[in-house]
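Task 17 of the worksheet. Students: predict the tertiary structure of the chain below and write it out as structure tokens. Keep your answer in the requested format; marks are given for formatting as well as content.
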Amino acid sequence: MAYQVLARKYRPQSFDEVIGQEHVTRTLKNAISKDRLHHAYLFTGARGTGKTSLARIFAKSLNCSQGPTPSPCNACSNCEAITKGGFLDVIEIDGASNTSVESVRELREQVKYMPAAGKYKIYIIDEVHMLSNAAFNALLKTLEEPPAHVIFIFATTEAHKIPVTILSRCQRFDLRRLSLAQIRAHLAKICGEEKVGCDEAGLDLLARSAEGSMRDAQSLLDMAIGLCGDSLQAERVLEMLGLSASSLIEDLSADCLEGRLSEALSKAEDLYHRGYDLRQVTTQWVEYFHDLALFKAAGAQALGEGVRADQIATMEKTTAAVEVADLQVAFQSVYRAAEEIARSESPKILFDLLLVKLVYGTPYRPLAELLAAGGGKAADSSMPAPRPSAAPVAAPAPQVPTAGPASESESLARALRKKPQLKALLQEAVTSWEGGDLIVVFPSGSLAAEMFAEKRGSLAEALSQELGRSVKVQLRQQGEAAASLPKAAVPEPAAPSDPVVRQAMEILNASLQEVKTYGHE
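Model answer:
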């Protein structure tokens, strides 16, 4: 007997064998049991999710010798003929190669005739979105009032391309992508049936590469068995798929987040010389930083069921010393680099510079936070001494009390670190403190001001918790601020006496040369 590919050999032959589409199979089985059949059905979803298989099973259920039944016997002549694709009353049409109106006119002539062997004449039109507008219009009348013995089943990956006049006459079912766990479990079952040994890591690689498509996963498994023989190994699967080793990506991430540039560059060189496509490596790296950020922010449950225990342990170790904000910055850097590397003729150069950026491109930290953390390191002897200034050095300012402006500024910085959306909105605003309240001045007509107005209550609550007292957040526009704010509240004259500025001047042994304002004319 000729070899049969796994995707055909293990194609589901009953509703119970369909994986991951219980919301569809339950509805169809109930419709058959209660004799509430519609004249047109539309199955839509990504490739390899079971659209055509469901259409054939539905046709088999309706034309089984013991049917209509939600559980076809798969033993009668009708079921066997439908399985083999040779049943006269189940007509499969490829919409991509029968797009013309003439093809639909021929179909309209054929639907008049009664079924030859079964109870229903069923037309399965795959990739129905490929039909021309004229063909859809020709089909419209037949679809609206078909003969009682005719049922149409449409399958498509792009339902948005189908005219609404057709959609409104069909019962639509959206098929879901299969999860990693579902694909991995089914592949393990097939390996057991085929008497092929497999490790969990190898199956995980195949399941991830399938991107929710069971047919793709089975085809990849077929290739892997051909390469590995009776024992499926992750290393050989990696060679077949041309993917970078996931452990190398994990190590690269740890090196970059912990500042080990030389080790990261060495691993990148290893990837390059082993023949891995750096474009694909960077794409995978985007996904990995996405997973790291989710894990750090929401825990392992945010990653779903398809993550192994050893992967979770690695993520926990990698993210132990970093914040969610750091991972967000790293994700954005890798995401932008992936787009550039995909278009570049020299991906290795861009990849190396990406590593440098990840190691040295630290996110912005407020000056008050740096000073509170011990900014004295800036005056290290290894740094060149600043040029002497002609202007006289100002006398040291007195120590700032804890309830003073520096404390308020630090509290604002801490509150905004917990609320990145508000921090982004305040980028174009000027903030100052007046009578214990926060004054926020936006440019006139700013869209960010409207968005901030809806959220300022949460900032006031956060500041009240930080300072241990009630704080109000007042919102003003630039013109209004210039007229109503007292002079002390405008940042321009306050800069020389600001305690944070004075502390920075002391640490750096610097003098004030110029004051530039932000957000003021």
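Marker's comment: The first strand starts at residue 40 and ends at 44. The two ends are 85 Å apart (CA to CA).
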